[in-house]
Amino acid sequence: MADPVVIATWPFGKIATDISGPQLVAGKAALDAVIAGAQAVESDKSVRSVGFGSLPDRIGRLTLDSCVMDGKTLACGAVAGLEHIRSASAVARRVMEKTPHILLVGEGAKWFALEQGFKLEMPHTVEGLREWFEKHPENEKKPVRNDAPPEPQDINIDERNHDTVTVIGLDQAGNLGGVCTTSGLAYKLPGRVGDSPIIGAGLYVDNEAGAAGATGVGEEIIRIAGSHYIVEKMREGKTPQEACELACKRVHASAARRGVHTARVAFLALNPKGEVGAACTPKTGFQYAVAVAGRTEMRTAKEIPM
Ligand code: SD4
User: Fold this and answer.
1) What's the 228 CA to ligand 1 centre distance in angstroms?
2) Residues 130-168: pLDDT tens digits?
3) Looking at the whole model, is its pTM more than 0.85?
4) What ranges do the domains of the chain cover?
5) N or C: which end of the chain has fewer CB within 10 A?
């Protein structure tokens, strides 16, 4: 019987591990426990980057991305650009369980959620909208031309537009399960989808090798298929820590090939033995929550220099 472990991104990951950890100790399956934890973050309106109350996109639309994956069967499901439904992770799970597909987007994802009995809700909060307006990039650029298209290169990660919650757990039966859920980067272009709902980028889970998840600038995570890369490194025998560090080095190398600075990204990983690892690129300041035997502690990830 494995000792249950659950890890989650960022300080608010503790909201998730405080729920998932005890559930794993009580014998719940990894996937059930991590989704329960992620849903608590989605419902917490003070978290401005996951679920309701998040900072919207450039034009004020709040869209959600999520994926889930079961390490025993490699079953997975995802939604992207989902609007007006509280729990994107719950809908992602239904995609996994009720359809032959893996990823539903936009209106189709919403239609599916409604058909599955989810209810429409208003995702905005007054506090979230106020912060969105006050920190909108167009309020900072002078002069602002109304007809100017948004500049994609100014979408980077800073204190106003992170973060995703990725929760990965190992249950007593030795199964791994994971979930990633986010509103994506604040002020993103309408229609932009990051790594979080992309299996292999924001999340990958395989009982036979390990599980990994990501947070940060999704474009750079997708570019190296970050989570899948880490899991394959663990399959080759690397520890979770070594594998996460290698992924950061790969992000650096991909930036160097384009002659740009590395973006802020972070990875975390868990192997079937319950060993944990995490690493991030410089200036990411990545903290994550780890619950072993149901008790959560916060850790700070190693920054990997360029
Ligand atoms: C995205 N990876 O949409 C997400 C955002 C995030 O820390 O995790 N920020 O690109």
Assistant:
1) 17
2) 988 898 988 875 444 444 444 444 445 454 456 789 999
3) yes
4) 5-139+154-303
5) N
